[in-house]
Design brief:
The chain is an all-beta fold. 1% of the residues lie in helices and 56% in strands. It contains 2 helices and 43 strands.
């Protein structure tokens, strides 16, 4: 039979934070922690909790009182409750003469915040507000652990631990067997603030797999799931251009919806670099701002020889992005990227992009209409590409409205579009058009799908300084120009479905006829329709040109077939087709694009998906005359999520004439892979090789095998500790972004950042 005693004015909440057992994580035995221990699970409520906050209830199997010695002893499943704090122990002894209270045996205490402590014995002062504990283990709300030889708690609730250790890793396996944590922090003195949920160390060092690797004097970090300001784990890297680099990030938790990270990077070969990122999230949207800055020398793109110091100055990079939802229909999005020079991003290994884009866009979308007011700007980072020829598009206006046809039952869409493009040293263009498109879809009794389309558009252009455009095919005529477009089309599909190869196959022959009267394309500038190339994605499009500045005319017939096979864990999709036009199209389409003559080239795509093991895509274009491969593109992934091999291959052999922007031929191969050695260790690698030779580019000086970049690495990840060592080699020089090796050492510790 249980019995209990109510004790007045004893502050046992402080007792709950002191109970714990043990000093070294490697010595923790599974039986030291009860099987039902859960640091985030609150203890069951006691129906007889005292209403007086100064009252403590001892509940035990047996309570003895020695009147001569004035000692109260509670034993057997002792439970002490007060103000949400709970202490369980085998025995609690209170010496009323000396004022000492001692708890012994299988001690477990839980605070209202969810921290749980375990120990063998606790000795408290007569006020029960101060005390010490030997062999301490404290399990935090987030599952992390603090252990020490000795712990002392003060009246404000804070604790000081001697020769303490901290880890966020599990100390037992899934089978309940003891194991050493992947990492732990050891220190001569550890301070724990349960109110701020923060741990501070004196003389701290991080041990990984039992080896001391990183001394961290003055280390402090939070021990809860809440974001808190503090120093994150440094990054270490080495490359042949900048030397040894150490990055030290500091995280600022400004508000629940705002944070910032400032990183100082120190190099042995170049000046230090400072970077920072600010992020904000509110009910309307989110944005972030990132900046880099340093003061150092730079070398112009394309420069050769020793690096001069004559161009010292500020170098930096600024980027921002954001999106805001004003209401159910209106949104504003923006993104900006600006670099001080063309080689900064590569020199400091921030990005390999060869151009930077800045945009702003105001959009309104509802069920039947779309409106956009946007602006675009670009910064080129390419060698030999003058910035004065790079366009700025502002404004870009687009409006579309869809509505049902009340007479024939089709669907109609109208579009209004306007664009202004300016260049500081090149051609300027303004364009506006209005269009209407009508589509009617019908199914016949035999299963054919027929789509009738009517399209009309009127364009107005105004351009200046057309002669500054070095590509005559794109210039157009100066001044005001107008153009009208009318198109009629019929598209017929006939899906044939049946059983085959243990699954369901669908064969869909397709025929399309498109008729458009002759258009004076050449008299208007070409700004957005330059990268024309026949592919499977645009084979059946009304206009195979990207953009609006070029539009196909004449009459053409496009024919092809789609085939699909579906089986359990297997799916195959294929498409192949060709088109024929009554007249050639060489006046606006360069030869080699597959569209310039009456018969187009043959294009197709094959996709294979087998379970989650094989993903294969092959795109191709065959010469209509001799079936030579003009485009050969392969993307394949074989393996599981953890172990896989990837290959990407592209060869463009279109024989397009020199000087046609964005249509140069090339050949390259990309390979990559990852091998999972065991549950935690893996190796990975990738490479890009330029295979472009004289066959693809007659002006090429390459021998047909020029590596661009390769990467090799090894990684460890057990959910608590992530380690990675990566070696990357760049084979190309661009100004002061020199070729050479880069070694990156990455360490990520759970609860301590990256």
């Amino acid at each position: 039979m249980k019995s209990s005693i109510a004790l007045i004015a004893l502050a046992v909440p402080q007792v709950c934070l002191l109970a714990s057992p043990h000093a070294a994580f490697a010595q923790i035995a599974p039986e030291a922690i009860p099987e039902d221990a859960n640091p985030v699970e609150a203890a069951p409520a006691d129906e007889n909790l005292p209403e007086n906050p100064d009252e403590i209830e001892f509940s035990a199997d047996k309570v003895d009182y020695d009147f001569e010695s004035d000692i109260v002893t509670a034993s057997g499943n002792v439970l002490v409750n007060r103000d949400g704090y709970r202490l369980r122990a085998d025995t609690v002894v209170w010496n009323r003469n000396s004022g000492v209270v001692e708890a012994k045996g299988n001690i477990r205490s839980t605070s209202p915040e969810g921290d749980t402590a375990y120990g063998d014995s606790i000795i408290l002062t007569d006020s029960l507000r101060d005390g010490t504990v030997e062999n301490l283990l404290l399990v935090m709300e987030d599952g992390s652990r603090l252990a020490a030889r000795k712990g002392e708690r003060f009246e404000d609730g804070s604790m000081t631990l001697d020769y303490g250790a901290y880890t966020a890793c599990a100390v037992v396996t899934e089978d309940g067997c003891p194991k050493k944590p992947s990492w732990e922090i050891k220190a001569v003195k550890v301070r724990y603030d349960p109110i701020k949920k923060r741990v501070t160390y004196d003389g701290a060092r991080i041990e990984i797999f039992g080896l001391p690797v990183i001394p961290l004097p003055g280390l402090s970090h939070p021990v809860s799931d809440e974001n808190r300001s503090g120093l994150l784990v440094p990054n270490l890297r080495f490359d042949s251009t900048n030397g040894v680099a150490v990055s030290v990030p500091y995280y600022f938790n400004i508000a629940p919806n705002q944070d910032a990270t400032v990183t100082a990077q120190v190099f042995t070969e170049v000046a230090p670099l400072i970077s920072g990122t600010f992020r904000n999230l509110d009910e309307k949207g989110a944005f972030q701002i990132t900046g880099y800055g340093t003061y150092s020398s730079r070398v112009p793109t394309g420069a050769t020889g020793p690096l001069p110091d004559s161009e010292k100055g500020f170098r930096g990079y600024f980027a921002t992005s954001g999106r805001f939802v004003l209401d159910d229909n209106w949104t504003i999005s923006q993104a900006a990227r600006i670099a001080s020079d063309r080689t900064f991003l590569r020199r400091y290994d921030i990005s390999d992009d060869d151009s930077l884009r800045s945009t702003i866009n105001v959009e309104r979308i509802d069920e039947s209409s779309y409106f956009s007011l946007a602006g675009w700007a670009f910064q080129t980072l390419r060698a030999g590409d003058p910035q004065s020829q790079v366009p700025v598009a502002l404004p870009v206006i687009d409006y579309r409205k869809r509505f049902a046809d009340p007479i024939l039952g089709g669907r109609t869409q109208i579009q209004l579009n306007s664009l202004a493009i300016g260049r500081s040293g090149g051609q300027d263009t303004q364009r506006a058009f209005a269009s209407a498109r009508w589509d009617l879809r019908r199914l016949t009794s035999m299963g054919q799908e027929i789509i009738l389309t009517g399209f009309a558009r009127g364009d107005v252009y105004n351009s200046e300084d057309n002669a500054l455009n070095e590509t005559a095919l794109y210039q157009g005529n100066s001044g005001w120009q107008t153009r009208g477009i009318v198109t009629a089309a019929v598209d017929v599909k006939w899906p044939l479905v049946g059983q085959a190869f243990g699954g369901t196959q669908t064969l869909t022959p397709r025929l399309q006829i498109v008729a458009t009267p002759a258009i004076a394309n050449a008299k208007v500038p070409n700004e957005d329709s330059r990268s024309v190339d026949l592919e499977d994605t645009n084979l059946f499009a009304l206009n195979r040109f990207p953009g609006y500045d070029r539009y196909e005319d004449n009459v053409r017939v496009t024919y092809g077939a789609e085939w699909n096979l579906s089986r359990p864990n297997l799916r195959i999709d294929a498409i192949v087709g060709q088109s024929y036009r009554l007249a050639n199209n060489s006046n606006i389409v360069p030869e080699g694009t597959g569209l310039s003559e009456r018969f187009s080239d043959i294009v197709g795509r094959t996709e294979v998906r087998f379970s989650d093991i094989v993903k294969f895509t092959h795109r191709y274009r065959l010469d209509k005359d001799n079936l030579a491969i003009r485009r050969n593109e392969i993307d394949a992934t074989i393996g599981s999520q953890n172990t896989y091999a990837q290959i990407g291959y592209l060869r463009l052999n279109r024989n397009i004439g020199d000087g046609i922007e964005d249509l140069s031929d090339r050949e390259e191969v990309r390979v990559g892979g990852r091998y999972q050695i065991n549950n935690y260790w893996s190796v990975f690698g990738s490479a890009i090789v330029d295979l472009t030779g004289i066959k693809e580019d007659p002006l090429s000086s390459s021998d047909g095998f020029d590596p661009i970049r390769h990467r090799l690495g090894v990684a460890y990840d057990d959910g608590c500790l992530s380690l990675a060592v990566t070696w990357r080699y760049d084979y190309e020089d661009t100004g002061d972004a020199q070729r050479g090796s880069t070694f990156l050492f990455r360490v990520a510790l759970r609860n301590l950042g990256v």
